[in-house]
Amino acid sequence: MANTIYIVESHEHSPTEATPKPSSLNSPKFPKVMQPLRHRINPKTFVITLRQIAKLLKINQERILNWEKWHNVLWIHIQGKGGYFFSYRKLEQWIAACRVLIRCCPNLSTLDALWQSIWQEVKRYTDNAFSRLEAIWQQRYTDLSNRQYT
User: Is residue 143 within 8 Å of residue 128, measured between CB atoms?
Assistant: First the structure.
């Protein structure tokens, strides 16, 4: 399978030490990693507006000459800058889809595999988005752990 190259804004992210890393890579209980998120979330279903794109890029709407949904990224033609690739992971729709996936995990092993998929893409998320996903993951982890011991 060919590697896909993403050209997106880079946000260095150093998660807090309190966040446990997924154990799936080192545990014999989880020999296979969950499918990448891009196979579980379909960006083609996202309703994306010109206004939303302009707000995320912090530019005036009129500067966006054209934009297209591509398979793994948005392609945006910005006046004076040319073509620009933007990760779907920066969109609120992607974060909402991740929230649904986290909340629907039926057990800790599924949750762990999903969190590993999110963790592998940590640099593609904004710090704020990752923090929100982390909080939802921690809540679901607590809920499933409590259920396991009751």
Answer: no
What's the DSSP call for residue 90? G
The residue to which tokens 């209980």 are assigned: 29
Burial zone of 115 (CB within 10 Å; 0-12 exposed, 13-18 middle, 19+ buried): buried
Q: What CA dihedral angle connects 88, 89, 95 and 101, to 10 degrees? A: 90
With the CA atoms of 44, 122, 86 and 43 taken in that order, what torsion angle do they form, in degrees rounded to the nearest 10?
0
Amino acid type, 117: S
User: Average pLDDT of each block of 10 consecutive residues along the chain (150 residues)?
Assistant: 32 37 40 67 93 95 96 94 93 95 95 94 92 97 87
Q: Can you give the pLDDT at residue 28?
A: 38
Cβ pair 116, 22 in contact under 8 A:
yes
Type of residue found at 103: R
